[in-house]
Amino acid sequence: MAFDIVIHGGRVLDGTGSPWQAADVGIRKGKIAQIGRLGRAKTDRSIDASGKYIAPGFIDIHTHSDIGILVEPTAECAVRQGVTTHVIGNCGDSPAPISERYRDLAVSRFEYYAEAKDWNWSTYAEYLDFMARQGVGINIAGLVGHGSVRLATMGFDERSPTPGEMRSMKDQVDEAMRAGAFGMSTGLVYPPGCFAATGEIVELAKVVARHRGFYASHIRGERETIVDAVRECIDIGERAGCPVQISHNNPKYGGIGKSSEIQRLWEAARQRGLDVLADNDAHTDFGPPLSHALPQWTQKLSTDDLLAMLRDPAKRGALKDEIQADRRPGAGYIGLLVHDRFDRIWLLRCPEDPTKEGLTIAELAQRRGVDPWTAYFDVIVEERDRAVGLFDYMDLEEIKSTLRHPLVMICSDGWVAPVEERTSPTAPYQPCSYGEFPGILERFVVKEKVLRLEDAIHKMSGMPAARLGLADRGRIRPGFAADLVVFDLARIRDRATNPWPHAYPFENYPHGYPEGIDWVLVNGRLAVEDGESTGARAGIVLRHRGA
After folding, report:
1. Which bin fits 73, alpha (ψ -120 to 50), beta or left (φ > 0)?
2. Residue 192 structural domain
3. How many CB atoms within 10 Å of residue 275?
4. Beta-carbon neighbour count of residue 22 at 10 Å?
5. For range 400-426, the mean pLDDT
6. Lowest mean pLDDT across 47-56, 426-435, 538-547
7. pLDDT (mean) for 185-209
8. What is the average pLDDT value for the chain, to the nearest integer?
9. Fewer CB within a 10 Å sphere, N or C end of the chain?
10. How far is it, in rounded angstroms, from Cα 408 to Cα 411?
């Protein structure tokens, strides 16, 4: 048999968790054609993998590349990590559906969207078709976001849907599933998803179940209420009759120490017959705008309205009381405000006054002779809501415990980063977008022995492929799509993650490409060649088989 490419002399990790085997891999017409000793086989291209590992391309089960993949379709920051597939539409946010009534509000939630005049889709099918026509450098599997469906129907209204609105939302979820969505996601700490009652989500998840999709959730509380939030998530899956994927389900500050309790809930649900899995990344920090830690309803305000509110001392006091009361739990990092841990919140980006960058809120407050809450609100006003913080809100040892669990797969929670994000002085802090998977291999496999190599690769490939129902990806088997990564484990280095404790300046860390990822193939085409991106758009938009 003649091959397009033969990868010679590697150690093949097949994605199942089995020990590696010495073998060559022959590729023909985008597929894995043969595995074995192929030394004399005729081939157009030969890759020497001696001393290196050959693994299935990594499948990132939780990303936010919905718009980034359109701005930078080559997805260089993904393929340079060995990632060949992104699952988008997580945490309740997808760029479709969009209604004309709430288009401006929807667009404001996705950076870069407003700048592209030809991005005028409304339905989920139109969004996927647009992406497919443009071409993508990695494979894309989409989820429809409950928050987007609710926004298209009800805007940011804090109420239950009317019967007519409920029918409209069901129709939109049905349309997305028919178009090829793999499931529905919720973001129950974010607006407008946080305004939805459990029953509303159950009814929409039943639509997903009819199409044999799964329910993914950023649950309704990741800290003090995390146990109840996991129970709600499992309850939704059981009542709707669909599998459950609990997103980045490691306890955050205020809930640290609850891992074993929530893991017992996963295990008990599976014993009852519910397909529950979870995912997590390896980073302890996150870099959102400071204003995103304010109560959810403030996110519908214009910048001028938000700043006017924050200039009012009485309204500041009311916001502080609402945050500390935590009656509607916000995202995990808000636990640092709830517990007055301003010493764990760094100022990462202050474009109006960069001299503040690198200080914690506690340090800034001390310098100014004010309390930390005053300093926090003042920075938002001074920077006209462009201030970005770095919240250190998770425990690394607990993350390791989470990732060891056999029901947990590895994700990045990152996104395809457009060039503008890498070079801008206000570039976000996103080491997960550049070094998540090499970082796991370097730190948790080689240095600290948290995971066996075979198990780590399974959590990055075969396990997420099975969750998605991809019958021809995630493993190295004849007939499977040739999504492959060749890496040198001894040379693997994550060049994006900031050393701990945090060092300032941060600029050189989040956008560094990893080392040791030498060759990456997407559908049989070279996306990374001898450590360098080729710029190929070899990916496809995957469509759920239940569609």
Report:
1. alpha
2. 58-284+395-450
3. 13
4. 9
5. 87
6. 426-435
7. 97
8. 94
9. N
10. 9
Q: 493 — phi, psi (to 5°)? A: -140, 130
Kindly report the number of other CB atoms within 10 A of residue 307's CB atom: 17
CATH of the domain at 219: 3.20.20.140
- Rounded distance, CA 356 to CA 547, Å? 51
Look at strands 83-88 and 139-142 and give their pairing.
Answer: parallel
Q: Tell me: do 90 and 140 sit in the same domain.
A: yes
Q: What is the pTM of this model?
A: 0.96
What is the chain's percent helix, strand, coil content, to nearest 5?
40, 20, 40
Residues contacting residue 10 through CB under 8 Å, at least 6 positions apart: 22, 23, 24, 25, 49, 50, 52, 53, 54, 486
- H/E element holding 378? helix 372-382
Judging by beta carbons within 10 Å of its beta carbon (0-12, 13-18, 19+), is residue 421 exposed, middle or buried?
Answer: buried
Residues across the chain: 547
Strand ranges inside 200-275, DSSP E: 214-218, 244-246
Side chain identity at 66, as an amino acid letter?
Answer: D
Contact 42, 3 (CB under 8 A): yes
Using CA atoms, how far residue 366 sits from 15, 323, 375, 523, in Å, is 52, 22, 9, 55
Asked if 500 and 92 touch (Cβ cutoff 8 Å), the reply is no
| CA–CA dist 165, 170 (Å, integer) | 9
Pick from 392, 419, 439: which residue ends a domain? Answer: 392
Q: Report the number of distinct structural domains present in the chain.
A: 2
Give yes or no for a contact between 195 and 161, defined as CB atoms under 8 angstroms apart: no
Residue 464 covered by a domain:
no
In order of 33, 91, 173, 178, 333, the CA distances from 144 in angstroms are: 34, 10, 7, 11, 25
Examine the domain organization and report whether 115 and 215 are in the same domain: yes
Measured CA to CA, the distance from residue 27 to residue 137 in angstroms comes to: 19
Residue 481 in this model has a pLDDT that exceeds 90:
yes
> Phi and psi (nearest 5°) for 330?
-95, -170
Give the containing element (helix H, strand E) for 527. Answer: strand 525-529
Query: Letter for the amino acid at 373?
Result: W
SS3 (DSSP) at 345? strand
d(CA 540, CA 133): 10
Kindly indicate the confidence band of residue 507, based on its pLDDT and cuts at 50, 70 and 90: low
Asked if residue 471 is part of any domain, the answer here is: no
Same domain, 265 and 372: no
Task: Answer yes or no: do 404 and 375 share one domain.
Answer: no
Angle at 219 between CA 217 and CA 220, to 5 degrees: 140
Mean pLDDT computed over 334-358: 95
Query: In what order do the strands lie in the sheet containing 139-142?
Result: 58-60, 83-88, 139-142
Same domain for 269 and 296: no
Q: Which residues of 247-257 are buried (b: 16+ CB within 10 A; e: fewer)?
A: bbbbbbbbbbe
